[in-house]
Specification:
The protein folds into two domains: 12-92, no CATH class; 95-208, Bit1. It is 50% helix and 16% strand. It has helices at 12-20, 25-35, 39-48, 51-63, 82-92, 109-130, 132-140, 153-165, 196-203; strands spanning 95-102, 145-150, 170-175, 185-195, 207-208. The protein is elongated. Belongs to the PTH2 family.
C-alpha cells in the first residue's frame, strides 16, 4: 500500500464539503481515510461504498465467519478500528470464482475433477460474454478459484437462486450419466467471477471441499 493512501485523520473542512454535496457523512469519513483526504476521489468513492456491508464484514471477521448474531448492528465508523475497515474494503475489491460440488453424490476424485473442469470452462465462456470487465479483473488477480461443497441438490438450487437474484453469473453442470451418476444429475454449480463483497453473502457459510 502506498504511503499516505490510508489515514485515520479526517480533514473536517473537506468532510463538510462532501456532506454539503449530499454524500453520507459516515461513508464520507471512510472515503476520506482511504483516499488521504482527496475531495474529488473521496466524493466518487463515498457514492459507491456499501458501508453497511463493510461493517458486516468486520463483524463477521471478529466472530469467525458470517452469522445471524446482530450484536454490534448499527455501529458506525467511530466504533470500528479503521484498519479493520480498510482490510474489509481491500477484501471487497478482490474477485474470485466459486465452484460448489454436491457432496451427497459420493463422486470419486476423478469424477469431481472432471465435473469441476466442465463448470469452470462453461462459466468462463459465459461470463466472458456477459461480464467481460469482471473476467478481466479476475484474470489480473491470477484467476482465484475456491471449491466448496453443498450438502444436497436442494441446497445447490437455493444457492443458484440467490446468485440469480444477485445478478451473479453462474453455470450448472448436469452430467450425461455415463459413469457414476444418473443422467441429468446436477453435480456442480460455478459462480462468478465476481467481487468478494457480492459472492461472500451467498457462499460464505459453505465448507471447503475435502
Amino acid at each position: 500500500m502506498e504511503e499516505g493512501f490510508f489515514t485515520e485523520e479526517v480533514d473536517q473542512d473537506k468532510l463538510k464539503m462532501l456532506v454539503e454535496l449530499g454524500c453520507d457523512e459516515e461513508k464520507s469519513k471512510l472515503a476520506m481515510m482511504i483516499t488521504g483526504n482527496s475531495v474529488d476521489s473521496a466524493a466518487t468513492l463515498a457514492m459507491e461504498l456499501d458501508l453497511e456491508r463493510l461493517l458486516e464484514m468486520v463483524q463477521d471477521a471478529r466472530e469467525g465467519g458470517p452469522g445471524d448474531d446482530d450484536e454490534g448492528e448499527g455501529a458506525g465508523i467511530a466504533q470500528v478500528d479503521p484498519n479493520d475497515l480498510m482490510a474489509a474494503f481491500e477484501h471487497s475489491l478482490q474477485c474470485k470464482m466459486i465452484i460448489i460440488v454436491r457432496k451427497d453424490l459420493g463422486m470419486s476424485t476423478g469424477k469431481i475433477a472432471a465435473q469441476v473442469g466442465h463448470a469452470v470452462l462453461g462459466l468462463y465462456k459465459e461470463a466472458s460474454v456477459e461480464y467481460p470487465e469482471k473476467v478481466a479483473q479476475w484474470e489480473m488477480l491470477s484467476w482465484p478459484k475456491i471449491v466448496l461443497e453443498a450438502e444436497s441438490e436442494a441446497q445447490m438450487d437455493e444457492l443458484r437462486a440467490k446468485a440469480e437474484e444477485a445478478n451473479i453469473c453462474h453455470f450448472q453442470v448436469q452430467d450425461a450419466g455415463r459413469t457414476e451418476v444418473e443422467p441429468n444429475t446436477k453435480t456442480v454449480l460455478a459462480l462468478g467471477p465476481d467481487l468478494n463483497s457480492n459472492i461472500d453473502p451467498i457462499t460464505g457459510s459453505l465448507k471447503l471441499l475435502k
